[in-house]
Design goal:
The complex is a heterodimer. By secondary structure, chain A is mainly alpha-helical. Chain A has 23 helices and no strands. Chain A starts with a helix and ends with a helix. Helices cover about 35% and strands about 25% of the residues of chain B. Chain B has a 6-stranded mixed sheet with strand order 6-7-8-3-9-10, sandwiched between helices. A 4-stranded antiparallel sheet of chain B has the order 2-1-4-5.
């Protein structure tokens, strides 16, 4: 009991302190503006709908949706839930572990408490997350307004499902641990589970034999008919018996009125209670695996706070350099060499050429038949969308390496480097990666459109001129676009580099929204001079010597303007790096 | 040679270092000591041009850090307390990268004896993640020494090193000093400072308390030559050395 009191004390004090700290940091403009932007975003996209729905709709119970339809949805929802639970018996191979923080382990594991108390502590800890998730999901699902019923009952329904699921996953992990103790390794366990599953499938298939007709074409075309057909299969025995626990757990969420909710609550809570007893009475060793899990989670959190995502795991072995780096020469090339080495062996010219060859051959095969040509036209639309997305939002995703550079700027500053050399060097590898990514999209686009455009489409020389123009524009444009977030990091380091635990909260989300807005505005402004020069050149030269030449000249001139802009930005960033005082400007 | 005249560094209204002047000549090892918050790291960072000084002049081998930062830094190496390495570059690739930064054409020939000296020849192809703390520190030193600097600044170089690593580090410092390198060593380990340094600079609250050869500083704050550097330090800084006091 003392541990549970300690838990409530810890959580309440932590929550209060965290709120106090967040309120206090609103005195800093970056958090205040971030809070305003984040609050506005949450209001517009989440809370406004809820408030408007509450103001305009009937209070309390919403008009009941068709109970039969909702019941069918409930029966169908039991299937993915059952598959998820089945997965918890089939796939995991690790030891049983409870979720504790490293501090929990440091204080609780040596403390004079029983294993059952530790389980209770972990369950309570999990409940905090489940309560929050239930609330958020209830809001996102518009509090179940499509199903009718009282909003709170939907939140309670979600809570019951998540809590039961949490207990089941824990109980399953305890059983797996016990099976391991009995010498049943994960492979044998999987064989046993698969055998049981096959038996159940065979029993269901045998019972359905000759009773149900396959869905008609009309059923497949009509969503409601298909739903009714699937629900009728799920209602047959023994399938309905097998799915019954999952239906019980989901029933409160799918109840359409108060009485239905009260009736559904009894079996759902009984199931929850049974799971609780199962978990609490399990006496398996989870301590070592829990400590390991806590350490891994702490490492992951630390990595994410440093701006390293889940995909940026540490390399396991050394990598071959992308090219031979001489001891002397243009210094920014060393940064490119380092950046490409960091990206790994996949990011090489060889890979790009192979991918282009595959696209070329594949597109020619598809272009040989009408169905394939339709596929190519769909791929063309998809690839041009992807290309635009990569060009506009790619730089925002490549900020990590730039942020790391600023954090280690004191080391670079100790070297005999000019600011512009550091700036250009750090920009080179993301520019190269982005340019080749967009060029690849162009190759895909050209291959997809080659010979597949109905009515002949534009002439080949015009297409080639357009491709050449875009190819020329991509590298300097990528450089400018990458310079914008880099400038954000260098000029507003406190906004882009979060010290310690500063990376959470809706105010931080608001900061990111503000930065994104600034990035998009700068992006648009940077394009204006180049677009103006290109448009002028095209208008003047369109009639003589002709549109193809006009397009190429316009692209070359726009490219020249963009190169000048990029050079000016590198010089500007370099001067900023030269003046950057790492002792004062980096957040601590 | 390191020449610092009237160095002042402000953080907003707070003065971390106030009007500090000193000289470290070739072959000298100057121990920079002081309590936490004395301004040691700020001094080292200003001295190597990593952060700008608010006031004052800093010259490395006669080259002004403000007028010609690139030329000045080419003469120097800064070995930080915590080795910060690129997790995806091997030991050899780190040296290759640093060679390009400093323009060392014959880096392979130069790297070989440095790695051998630091007993890292067989670690050439390992990543930082595969190295121990001491090995990482040695790699940071190897990177710092590759361009044969005439000025080396060590910031708490013994952090995390085992006894063998400490002995090796002391050997490196003595050898460099013997070759005519001007060295600044910042450390809280007064025994190390006493053992390695020829000169001493005591800082407190950003102000120079004492400066000179170890013998001169010792003579200023103690009656006899047998007094330990620890006693000298506490007398100079005015802090109490008795934990029970």
């Amino acid at each position: 009991m003392a541990v549970l009191r300690a838990f409530f004390y810890l959580q309440s004090v932590s929550l209060l302190n965290s709120m106090r700290l967040r309120l206090m940091r609103l005195r800093q403009p970056k958090y205040l503006f971030g809070a305003i932007a984040g609050g506005l975003y949450l209001y517009v996209f989440l809370f406004r709908r809820v408030i408007e729905a509450s103001a305009s709709g009937p209070r309390g119970f919403a008009p009941a949706a068709d109970p039969a339809t909702v019941a069918q949805y409930g029966a169908l929802a039991a299937v993915p839930l059952a598959l998820f639970v089945l997965g918890s018996w089939l796939f995991p191979s690790g030891r049983a572990a409870l979720r504790f923080s490293e501090a929990d382990i440091a204080f609780l594991f040596p403390a004079p408490v029983t294993r059952t108390t530790l389980i209770h502590y972990a369950l309570l800890r999990a409940q905090l997350g489940i309560f929050f998730s239930s609330f958020l999901m209830s809001l996102l699902l518009r509090r179940g307004s499509a199903l009718g019923g009282f909003p709170l009952q939907h939140a309670a329904g979600i809570w019951i499902v998540l809590s039961t699921l949490n207990l089941h996953l824990l109980g399953a992990s305890f059983v797996r641990e016990r099976l391991l103790d009995f010498g049943v390794n994960p492979l044998r366990r999987r064989v046993l589970v698969c055998a049981a599953l096959l038996l159940a499938v065979a029993a269901c298939a045998w019972s359905l034999q000759g009773k149900l007709a396959p869905p008609t074409a009309e059923d497949i075309a009509n969503g409601a008919s298909l739903r009714r057909w699937a629900a009728s299969i799920l209602a047959t025995q023994p399938l309905s018996w097998l799915l019954a626990p999952f239906r019980w757990s989901l029933a409160p969420y799918f109840a359409t009125d108060g009485a239905g909710f009260a009736r559904a609550l009894v079996p759902a809570l009984a199931l929850l209670a049974a799971h609780y007893v199962w978990v609490v009475r399990s006496q398996v060793s989870f301590e070592e695996a829990s400590m390991d899990l806590a350490r891994r989670r702490a490492d992951r959190v630390a990595a994410m706070r440093q701006g390293k995502g889940l995909l940026s795991a540490k390399p396991a072995r050394s990598r071959r350099p992308p090219f031979q780096l001489a001891g002397t020469g243009f210094v920014p090339i060393a940064f490119l060499w380092k950046g490409l080495l960091a990206l790994g062996p996949f990011w090489r010219l060889r890979t790009w050429l192979i991918a282009c060859a595959v696209v070329l051959v594949g597109s020619r095969i598809l272009a040989a038949n009408p169905g394939g040509r339709l596929t190519l036209r769909i791929v063309a639309i998809f690839s041009i969308t992807m290309g635009g997305w990569v060009l506009v939002f790619g730089p925002m995703l490549m900020q990590r390496s730039l942020r790391e550079m600023v954090e280690n700027l004191d080391i670079l500053r100790a070297g005999p480097l000019r600011g512009w050399e550091i700036a250009l060097g750090e920009l080179l590898s993301p520019v190269v990666v982005m340019a080749f990514a967009v060029w690849f999209v162009l190759v895909v686009e050209a291959c997809c459109l080659w010979g597949t455009t109905p009515g002949g489409g534009p002439s080949l020389d015009l297409v080639l001129a357009a491709v050449l123009g875009v190819t020329l524009l991509v590298p300097p444009l990528s450089g400018i676009l990458l310079s914008v977030p880099f400038a954000g990091i260098l000029f507003f380091p406190a906004w882009t580099i979060s010290p310690g635990t500063g990376g959470r909260g809706f105010e931080v989300m608001g900061q990111r929204l503000i930065l994104l807005g600034g990035y998009l505005v700068t992006f648009a402004l940077a394009l204006v001079p180049a677009a103006g020069v290109a448009a002028l050149a095209y208008v003047v030269l369109r009639r003589f010597p002709g549109p193809t030449t006009a397009l190429v000249v316009a692209a070359v001139l726009a490219c020249a303007v963009l190169v000048l802009e990029f050079a000016a930005m590198v010089d500007w960033l370099g001067r900023r790096i030269d003046r950057f005082d790492v002792s004062q400007e980096l957040p601590r | 040679m390191i020449e610092i005249e009237h160095l002042t560094k402000h953080y907003g209204a707070f003065a971390a270092v106030k009007d500090l002047s000193f000289v470290v000549r070739p072959g000298e090892v100057m121990g920079l000591v002081g309590p936490n918050g004395a301004g040691k790291t700020t001094t080292l960072r200003c001295a190597t041009g990593i952060i700008p000084a608010t006031l004052g002049t800093i010259r490395l081998c006669g080259i002004d850090v403000v007028d010609d930062p690139v030329g000045a830094k080419r003469q120097a190496a800064f070995i930080p307390d915590e080795p910060r390495l690129f997790e995806y570059l091997t030991v050899a690739q780190h040296l290759n990268f640093v060679a390009r930064l400093y323009g060392v054409a014959d880096f392979e020939a130069r790297a070989q004896p440095i790695l051998a000296d630091l007993e890292m020849t067989d670690k050439r192809n390992l990543l930082p993640g595969e190295l121990s703390r001491g090995m990482k520190q040695k790699l940071a030193i190897a990177c710092g020494l590759l361009h044969r600097p005439k000025v080396v600044v060590f910031d708490e170089p013994m952090t995390g090193l085992d006894p063998a690593g400490m002995r090796r580090m002391k050997g490196v410092m003595r050898r460099l000093a013997g070759e005519g390198t001007a060295i600044i060593l910042s450390s809280h380990l007064l025994d190390l400072v006493e053992e390695v340094c020829t000169h001493l600079l005591i800082l407190k609250d950003g102000v120079k308390i004492a400066d000179g050869s170890v013998a001169e500083v010792r003579a200023r704050f103690s009656a006899d030559a047998g007094t330990s550097l620890e006693d000298v330090f506490f007398r100079a800084t005015g802090d109490t050395e008795d934990p029970h006091a």
